[in-house]
């Protein structure tokens, strides 16, 4: 039986991933900070194993790894989104918190769980489509996700000789508890179930890149080809409104 460990499994994309991987016959280890939510998840999926730890705390991650058997897939999905209401003064506490939760935590998980990977296994790192173009108030979130992009692509090169694949996952807007807090328009928003199906398909294909929804991603890619000076003027005009 193939096995997978999913971080951030108690809500949103992670929770939907638990459902689809369980349905596909995988041995699933679901992780999260909230013991109550993990217990509820296990009630719906009795076959899964649950582990409670905070991905932003290195020791907790390393201790949890001692309870994990060998894995065929590792999906690093846990993360948070906080926007910077002002950049002057700059909120370095918020910046550090987001970088630690979204970027440093992935390093802790790689240290802990990569030794558990079987030959020909696959790592999935969940970044974001926000990295295509710079958005207002996204300094911390965007920087953390841009770091994940570079990390995933660099890892895919260095792990090739060990027959370990890496998929960079860049969703558009997905209906989750995090995006429910957003007060702006979210074009082409998809359900967490849609996202989980796209990720599962890409992981089985060992795709280097998993991006969805296609039309929205292509629109962002086209916008990213604009000279930065032009995009900056467009963005500033919208902020002034």
Keywords:
seven-stranded parallel sheet, 45% helix, Rossmann fold, 8 helices, 241 residues, alpha/beta
Question: If you average the pLDDT, what whole number results?
Answer: 93
The CATH architecture designation is 3-Layer(aba) Sandwich
| Biggest beta sheet attributes | 7 strands, parallel
Query: So what's the overall shape?
Result: globular
Q: Report the sheet-strand fraction.
A: 15-25%
The end-to-end span amounts to 55 Å
Identify the strand order in the major beta sheet.
3-2-1-4-5-6-9
**CATH class categorisation:** Alpha Beta
CATH topology: Rossmann fold
Task: List SSEs in N-to-C order.
Answer: EHEHEHEHEHEEEHEHH
Helix content: 40-55%
CATH superfamily: NAD(P)-binding Rossmann-like Domain
Low-confidence stretches: none
SS elements, strand count: 9
């Amino acid at each position: 039986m193939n096995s997978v460990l999913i971080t951030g499994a108690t809500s949103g994309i992670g929770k939907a991933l638990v459902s689809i991987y369980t349905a596909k016959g995988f041995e699933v280890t679901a992780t999260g900070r909230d013991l109550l939510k993990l217990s509820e998840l296990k009630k719906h999926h009795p076959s899964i194993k649950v582990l409670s730890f905070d991905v932003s705390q290195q020791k907790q991650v390393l201790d949890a790894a001692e309870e994990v058997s060998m894995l065929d897939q590792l999906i690093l999905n846990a993360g948070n989104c906080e926007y910077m209401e002002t950049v002057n003064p700059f909120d370095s506490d918020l910046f550090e918190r987001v970088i630690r939760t979204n970027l440093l935590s992935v390093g802790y998980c790689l240290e802990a769980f990569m030794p558990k990977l079987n030959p020909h296994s696959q790592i999935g790192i969940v970044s974001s489509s926000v990295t295509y173009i710079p958005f207002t108030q996204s300094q911390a979130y965007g920087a953390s996700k841009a770091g994940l992009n570079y990390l995933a692509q660099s890892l895919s090169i260095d792990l090739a000789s060990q027959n370990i694949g890496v998929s960079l996952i860049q969703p558009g807007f997905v209906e989750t508890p995090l995006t429910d807090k957003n007060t702006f328009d979210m074009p082409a928003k998809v359900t967490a179930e849609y996202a989980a199906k796209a990720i599962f398909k890409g992981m089985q294909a060992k795709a280097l890149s998993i991006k969805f929804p296609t039309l929205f991603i292509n629109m962002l890619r086209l916008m990213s080809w604009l000279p930065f000076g032009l995009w900056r003027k467009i963005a500033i005009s919208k902020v002034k409104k």
